[in-house]
Amino acid sequence: MEPQAVPGQRDGRPEPRPAMELLVHGVGGATPQQMLGDARVCRVTGDATASIHRRTEDAEDRPWDERDPLREAYSWSNLTSGNGARALWLLLLPFMIVNVTHWMRPAVRGHGRTHHLYDALVRLIALSLTVLLVSGACVVALDALAWQCGSSATCAARTSWFSFATDGGWWSTPGRRLALAALLPAALTALLWWLSHRTWSTYESAYPPVRVRQSATEPAPLSLPGFWYGRRLVSRLRAAHTAAGLLTVCAALRSAAPTYDHGPEGGGALAATGLALTVATVAGGAAVLVLVTRYGRNETQIEDPPPHRAVTLLPAGCAALLAATVVHTAWDRPGWETAGALPGTVVFPVLTVAQGVMIVALALAALRLHRLARDTDRTALAGLGGPAVALLSCALAGALTGGATQRFTDWLTSGSQALHGPPVMLSWQAAAIPSLIAVAALLGAVAAVRVRRDRRRLAPTVLANYPRESAPPDDHRSGTIASALARARLTDSAPAIVGTLAAASLMLGVVAVLGTWGTGLTPSEAAADAPAPFAAVASLSESLGSWMLSVAVLVMIAMGRRAYRDRAARRTIGILWDVGTFWPRAAHPFAPPCYAERAVPDLSWRIATWVDATGGRVVLSGHSQGSVLAAAAIWQLDAPTRSRVSLLTHGSPLARLYGRWFPKYFGPHALRLLREEVPCWRNLWRATDPIGGPVDVPGQDADDRPVDHGPLLDPLHYGRNLRSPLPEPVLGHGDYPQDPSYDVERAHLCHTLRGESDADAPVSGGRSPGPPSDGSRRHGTADLTVKNPDAGPGEGPGQEPGVGETPYRR
């Protein structure tokens, strides 16, 4: 008698739970159609910015099928490249870089005072960049245009659009010209505030999962419930930086009037009012410093206490102070004449020195933390990665601000010998740029020589990696593969490159400050009495540097526009951009927004709710930057949900980039915690991949498999054969699902989640000929070998190494 069917059972066994592969793409983005390998897809949840899709025919959840697994694709590319106008974010690159510095602390527990000092110094450096940017706008508008050009008949004749302020009318007095010109830096500050507020309401307002519970005595930093919810801190920092920008304009205006007010023709109410405004400006600056240094991130809880009302009113109060300063500056002062440069331009060397002092203090704090940290062998620059990057952000900000400022002032004051020109410090900074570019070019030449040398060394060994192929040696083919291997290794030289550029920037900055204060002249003027070759080099460097800095701004805009129109350019630029904007805005509120504060909650919510609704299992597959988002999302899950999720990473920069530069969050200890908190994790990597690499985490599966599987063969075949009649491409960082190991490891992860061994799993009968999960072509697993009649057993052009072989060695 046959057994009766039981509801919820099949063949007398419990019906298997649903299982799903959730795909997360990397830098450059991919459409849901490409990820799912089907033109017919539907949106399951989400909006036009970020969403989850399935194939149209996969409307219902179902058990795992190795022939055709259920897949979902999370598309987040619009978070960083959805609108071409976001190319303007490249102009905020220094703000992004200094914000990244906050997250580059060494991995050490405790020592709260040193941690607080490190964080406060980073926030102060970030504040100095805002002051620098607004100061540059003040030089253009107040000094060059209103103060110098407005008092010169020659310059006024060249600027007909500004003639209404130079024709002897009501606007022609110095104070009113300054009051009118102050609108430009004030408008710039307002624009930065608006951009920050607009992105803050879109990105930082994505509420994280509400069921986060710690399952370990030492939780990973990215598992803290408030890590991806920086709404309160960004609001406070935005208020502080907006106030600092407005106070910078106030200080620039106040630097002009005291000469008259405290002179023989001034005094009285004007002098007293000016003194009161100066005291108020200094008090506002002190309030900004207290706000920036006192308040940091609170990651242990989702909601911070609401900010004090004084914090929210600080920008409004500074705006009122600026209005009063404008009125006071525009007040009628008979006989007031302008001469030379605006006194406030001394801020540039002072600001440069202050940044240098803070970076030195930051380096000392980082060294102390590094000495106390664990697993420091792979940390970039021995813990000095943060200070080096902060130094580069200051150098870049000074170069871009100084270049644009000097080019405008040079154009405005050309042909007028009576005008003072741009601040001397900007001329020295511009003159240093060709030297810095020469250092970068030298580093590039060294890298090219290294690639060429490694290519020659590796080319003869390439064919040995394909022992089961009998293809004849091909010098061109071997050279192509060897070149890919050599170029991929350059990524490991990034710390040396960054350290060299930072050291060169520091030395050139010291020379610029000493030249400014020691001579008070521009480089060409200071070298006028030197031998002719030195004078010619100084003049050429100053002129060339000015033009190069001016062109750099336009090039950055053009690169940004191209990056969001051209896929190849977007993938190239996106490597740095997606790393920089992955981190929350913890130091600079005007930095480009953090897309992970939307993407990580999206993934966590989807996994948790789908597991709750179906009781199923999830294989979370992340490529490149998607693997970083996947790891962060897993850390945000509660322990019961996490026990039903396995992780498959490929082309992952978790250890190779993030682990070296952000050791506290992705260092060896953090990755070991991640491995302990998920049932199973496999990582695929290639030696030809310039971004991804091994994670070097020991395995804890039942069969004691290590996490890393690789390096994979790339290309899959050296020569032509029945399986590959045309040459196989070198895939490098892309198309990991094209490798047969991808399906094998994905099936293994699913079986492990279900408590099965690979031998217990149902036989799939081979892979279906349908498209893979990312829309690319794959090789089947059937044996299509054509034997060479002269070859021995096991030798043939179509055969390939078995799963798990590692033909490339580092």
From TrEMBL:
Ranges annotated as spanning the membrane: 87-108, 120-142, 178-195, 269-292, 313-331, 346-367, 379-405, 425-449, 496-517, 544-564
UniProt-annotated stretches for the region Disordered: 718-742, 755-810
Key words, A-Z: Membrane, Transmembrane, Transmembrane helix
Protein name (Swiss-Prot/TrEMBL): Integral membrane protein
Keyword Metal-binding appears in the UniProt entry: no
